[in-house]
Each structure stands twice: as C-alpha cells, then as structure tokens.
Amino acid sequence: MTIDLRSDTVTLPSAAMRAAMSVAAVGDDVYGEDPTVNRLEKFAAELLGKEAAVYVATGTQSNLIALMSHCERGDEYIVGQQAHTYKYEGGGAAVLGSIQPQPLENEADGTIDLDRVAAAIKPDDSHFARTRLLALENTLGGKVLPPAYIDAAAALTRARGLAIHLDGARLFNAAIKLGIEAAAIAHAFDSVSICLSKGLGAPVGSILLGPRPLIDRARRWRKVLGGGMRQAGLMAAAGLYALENNVARLADDHANARLLAERLAAIDGVTTDPAQVQTNMVFIHVPADAAVALRAFLAQRGMMISSGATVRLVTHLDIGRDHVVAFSDAVSEFFRDVHKPAVPASAIA
Ligand SMILES: *Cc1c(COP(=O)(O)O)cnc(C)c1O
Q: Of all protein residues, whose CA lies closest to atom 8 belonging to ligand 1?
C-alpha cells in the first residue's frame, strides 16, 4: 500500500483516463489542428465562462504566459509573498519577462489587504515600474478566497486601470467548497489559470483562459517559451476526462482532509486545528526532534510526507478513507511506541 500525502500532483492516471487518451483524435496543435486540444480548450472556456483558452504544459508556464501577456518589459505585478506566481516559479516573470514583482504579505486567509494593494500601485512617473496587474491565488495553502474579497479586489483593479489574474491551480477545490460554479469565481478575473494535473488527476497540463486578444498573445508567448506542442491531444484527452469526471469528487478529498485532521489532532505529539481545514490540505506541527524519525517511520510503511516540523498533508484522488485511517493509525503508533512525548519536569517526583 502506498499512501502519498506530499501533494495532489502525485495522482496517477486511472484506467478509464488512459483509455480515453489511447483513442484520442490528434493533429498538430501548433497549426491549431489537434481536435482533442481544441475540444478541451472550448470545453474549459465554456465551463469557466471565458471567451478563449489555451492548453499549456504546466501551471508555471500558464502563469508566466499570463504575466507576459498582461505586462511588458518594465511593468510590474502586485502579488502575495506566498503566491506560487511569486515564490515558487523560479522568478520566471523577472527572468524571462523583464516584469518586476511587487510582493505584499498575504493575510492568514490567503487574501492581500486591499488598502496595501492600493498603496502599492505606482503613480505614472519615470522613477517607477508601471503597475499593470494584480495576481491572486485561489486556493492558497488550501484556503478559499472569500467571494466578497474577490469582488472588492476586482473593483479596485478596474478603478485603477489594472488587470487582475487568478492562479486557480485549485480553483475547482474553491468552487466545490463554496458550493458554487467555478465560473462564478472566474467571472471577476481578466485571466484564469487552472491545473489539470493536481487533484483533477491528469498527468500533464494546465489551461489559461481569458478574452480572445489576451489568449492570442498568450499563444504567441507559449511558442516563444518553447511550449508549442504537436500531437498534444493525447494529453489533452486526459485533461478533458479530468474536467468531465473528477471535479465533483473533490468533495471527497475535502471530507478526507477533515477526517485526517480530526484523527491527527487527537494524537499526543501532533498539533493541528481541524477547524482550519477548508479544502484538501492539512497542516500539522510535530516536535522538531521527531520530524525526521516520523518521516522515516512512515516511509517504511509506504507512507510519504514532506520533510520538516510543519508538514503539509494533501488529500487527492488516490487517497481513500481507509488510507486516512491507516495513516493516522501509523502516526499514532509512532508517538506511542517510538517518540514518546517528554514527561514534563513538574511531573517527575
Ligand atoms: C502546482 C501549482 C502551480 C504550478 O503548476 P506546475 O504544473 O507544477 O507548474 C501554480 N500555482 C499553484 C497554486 C500551484 O499549486
């Protein structure tokens, strides 16, 4: 038994998904002639209520292409310190786009304080980079952005002449949690990036969506960045399968994450607050001197977690309720038999 809780990127394509891939009609997508890629782009655009879409290799590529399509050399985007588009993409916007990030602290709920966003927008003055874009992320660290916040952010960017981009790698997790259509969240944004290769279970692929002129520019940048793929329909078929079959079931991942948090919270040695779990991520803290041994103990049992004293556990398509039970039992066993919590000095006679 393998229980991999490091990320929802570790999902493997199911037999049904592989079957859909094996019979996909394909063509040269750089010529716009791959029927499956075209179908996926059209399906996603309709699903998210956007005019156009472009299929890309990865979420990182999708965000970078979005930034380069909104911003030119010497422009800047406002972004959260914890955002993937700022912190986890190798500085791509600056490296490849000559776009300056203006990072601001994220609040605990994943938002960026809008007064601070407003204050960070630079006046039109040759001393400053031109502020062009606000980039948000939903979900961020498993947290769902409040819809009223998104509306206020969009109103601010409209009033100040900025565009607004959503890194929606886990947009469907947010929609499922709120019980609304993903399009209702996407609506406020000029561009939206979604990942097919996270909890949706496709092996590869992301989609960038927005108005036609923006997506035309994006298609050009995709080629420039080496992302023009040929018979990509083989992979797009997996993406279509994911969007058609694996969205509603994200609710199971959320329920499993909640159960996982509740079971772990009951273990002496683990600190976590189940009430903080909104979607498919659980953050736990373990004593620093136990972290390495816990990880090794679990690895011996085919259970994989990230390293560190603060551990992010992510539920997904290949994690069932029985896995949650087996995993939390193993953690419990570790703290009972291997790393017994220290007896407080006051308790020693
Ligand atoms: C995973 C992720 C990405 C990037 O996706 P890759 O396909 O790994 O490049 C972007 N944003 C967020 C929030 C992500 O979780």
A: 59
Q: Which long-range contacts (CB under 8 A, 24 or more apart) does 326-332 make?
A: 326/1, 326/3, 327/3, 327/5, 327/260, 327/298, 327/303, 328/260, 328/263, 328/264, 328/267, 330/297, 330/298, 330/301, 330/303, 331/264, 331/267, 331/270, 331/294, 331/298, 332/267
Give yes or no for residue 84 CB within 6 A of ligand 1.
yes
Q: Closest ligand 1 atom, CA of 197?
A: 7
* Domains, the chain, ordered by start: 8-245 (3.40.640.10), 249-345 (3.90.1150.10)
Would you give per-residue pLDDT tens digits along the chain (349 residues)?
799 999 999 999 999 999 999 999 999 999 999 999 999 999 999 999 999 999 999 999 999 999 999 999 999 999 999 999 999 999 999 999 999 999 999 999 999 999 999 999 999 999 999 999 999 999 999 999 999 999 999 999 999 999 999 999 999 999 999 999 999 999 999 999 999 999 999 999 999 999 999 999 999 999 999 999 999 999 999 999 999 999 999 999 999 999 999 999 999 999 999 999 999 999 999 999 999 999 999 999 999 999 998 999 999 999 999 999 999 999 999 999 998 866 666 666 5
Whole-number Å distance, alpha carbon 59 to ligand 1 midpoint, is 5
Q: Does any ligand 1 atom lie closer than 6 A to the CB of residue 59?
A: yes
Distance 332 CA to ligand 1 centre (A): 32
Nearest ligand 1 atom, CA 84: 11
User: At 332, which amino acid appears?
Assistant: S
Model confidence, pTM: 0.96
Cβ contact 132:76 at 8 Å? yes
Among 63, 195, 200, 306, residue to substitute to test ligand 1 (most atoms within 8 Å of Cβ): 195
For ligand 1, atom 4, the nearest C-alpha belongs to: 59
Ligand 1 binding pocket includes 192 (Cβ within 6 Å): no
The position carrying tokens 């927005």 is: 210
Backbone angles phi, psi at 271, to 5 degrees: -115, 125
Residue 169 CB–ligand 1 contact under 6 Å: yes
